[in-house]
Amino acid sequence: MNILSIAGSDPSGGAGIQADLKAIAANGGYGMAVITALTAQNTRGVSGVQAISGDFVTAQLEAISADVRVDAVKIGMLANQEIINAVAAWLDTVDAPVVLDPVMVATSGDRLLEDAAALRPLLDRAAVITPNIIELAALLGTEPAGEWAGVLEQAQRLAQEHDVLVLAKGGHLAGEDCPDALVSTSEVLAEFSAPRVATKNTHGTGCTLSSAIATRFAATGDWAQALEEAKSYLHRAIAGADALQVGGGHGPVNHFVDFFGAGDPMDAWWEDIAGLRAGIDDLEFIVQLADGSLDRAKFDYYLAQDALYLQHYAQVLAQASTLAPELDSQRFWAKGAGEILEGELQLHRSHLVEGQANPSATTLNYVNHLHASNASYGELIAAILPCYWLYQDIGNRLAAANHEAHPYNDWLATYADPGFDEATAQAKDMVRQAYRLADPAQRERMRAAFIRSSEHELAFFAQAHGSE
Ligand SMILES: Nc1ncnc2c1ncn2[C@@H]1O[C@H](COP(=O)(O)OP(=O)(O)OP(=O)(O)O)[C@@H](O)[C@H]1O
Ligand SMILES: Cc1ncc(CO)c(N)n1
């Protein structure tokens, strides 16, 4: 799909044609750009504007339509009446759907259009207009609405005046959510809301959203679907904005967040296993271990399986050390393996009555999964992580339930080791580092390995009660 942006240049890359081309590409379109004006701007503000002559804007537009099929047009900054006239005249010669972002002021507050009224003739030519609250009021010649219902009412009025769809944007309202609604002359066609992201890096959100809508409409032929997809994309890009470090003012959104990620998958992975975590908390084994009512034979069974498990776990950590890309991580995993063999296994043995049990099917399944996750370092340590992280998480709660007279007092006391919190934090950092270097397919394999290990953790804790 060939998407044309007609807009101004932002040399800092966060808004204008630079943002448009990134958003178009990130949404699967082929981006083209006719430049209406050069701005001198950065994340702090606009220090200069140099408009292109109307004739040369026409020359650019004609060069494109003489050669390339245009599937959708997004219009941004137009600077002055001469350019508006040039664009309006060219639009009369083409048939592509138009998304018009009536850019008047930058996020920084600087003016980017001489006169709001000049835009009016273009509004009739657009399929969708995407004004923010201030632009919406300016186009109607009225005061900005203070709440969402008022914004919707104004959007419907503008839709009626120009027989277009109006995207009402609630981003400038205070509130925990950022609602957007597609409003026709008679009704709200679709409304999508996203949680407000706590960031000052929102430079170019309007440019990005309108370009994404134009691109997704060209792909789907459905405005409501295009808005839904574009809104969801924009939310991810805003959520990933702080991972970029561009300028000291309002920084740009992270246009390619879906390709290179925001860098830290930990919160999302933890959320992915929320159900498994709740499942572990509810297990009879965990509940009874906490309140002390756990049958000693079941505890011994668990301990014997855990000892068998830990021997393999130490092997897997040693292999992670072998695969580790640099010295720090090599040392970390080797140290972990050593500590298990010297410390934890001894502790288990001291609790075990006598003899060695055979590994259960549950235990074997888990260790087989760990051993089989060695196709890459990233996958292996993602598979290793749940044992650290879940043990630390559950352990903190179990340690809190401990007291002098608790039948499993000495065992629960081992969960209170601050050294284990530190080791878990380090293991998470190792996984973060590997994730940062991984491509999308590898990242997905890492996530899958993490989730699978978490499933095995649940089964492992459940096995003493035969309810895995
Ligand atoms: N902090 C935020 N968290 C989530 N979404 C946001 C946030 N800030 C803005 N948005 C969303 O960004 C989109 C653009 O909204 P806004 O009303 O700010 O447009 P704009 O003023 O035209 O943008 P620009 O800053 O590029 O001029 C809307 O979908 C809005 O909900
Ligand atoms: C060139 C340009 N277009 C649009 C905006 C609106 O954010 C901006 N700041 N700069």
Automatic annotation (TrEMBL):
Molecular-function GO terms, alphabetical: ATP binding; hydroxymethylpyrimidine kinase activity; phosphomethylpyrimidine kinase activity
Species in which this protein is naturally found: Glutamicibacter uratoxydans
Keywords: ATP-binding, Kinase, Nucleotide-binding, Thiamine biosynthesis, Transferase
UniProt-listed InterPro entries: Haem_Oase-like_multi-hlx, HMP/HMP-P_kinase_dom, PM/HMP-P_kinase-1, Ribokinase-like, Thiaminase-2/PQQC
Catalytic activity: 4-amino-5-hydroxymethyl-2-methylpyrimidine + ATP = 4-amino-2-methyl-5-(phosphooxymethyl)pyrimidine + ADP + H(+); 4-amino-2-methyl-5-(phosphooxymethyl)pyrimidine + ATP = 4-amino-2-methyl-5-(diphosphooxymethyl)pyrimidine + ADP
Listed name of the protein: Uncharacterized protein
Summary of the function given for this chain in its UniProt record: Catalyzes the phosphorylation of hydroxymethylpyrimidine phosphate (HMP-P) to HMP-PP, and of HMP to HMP-P.
Example of a GO biological process term: thiamine biosynthetic process
Thiaminase-2/PQQC domain segment(s): 284-463
Kinase listed as a keyword: yes
UniProt xrefs under Pfam families: Phos_pyr_kin (PF08543), TENA_THI-4 (PF03070)
Lineage: Bacteria, Bacillati, Actinomycetota, Actinomycetes, Micrococcales
Any one annotated GO CC term: cytosol
Domain Pyridoxamine kinase/Phosphomethylpyrimidine kinase: start-end pairs: 10-254
Keyword ATP-binding: yes
Record-linked Gene3D superfamilies: 3.40.1190.20, Heme oxygenase-like
Pathways per UniProt: Cofactor biosynthesis; thiamine diphosphate biosynthesis; 4-amino-2-methyl-5-diphosphomethylpyrimidine from 5-amino-1-(5-phospho-D-ribosyl)imidazole: step 3/3
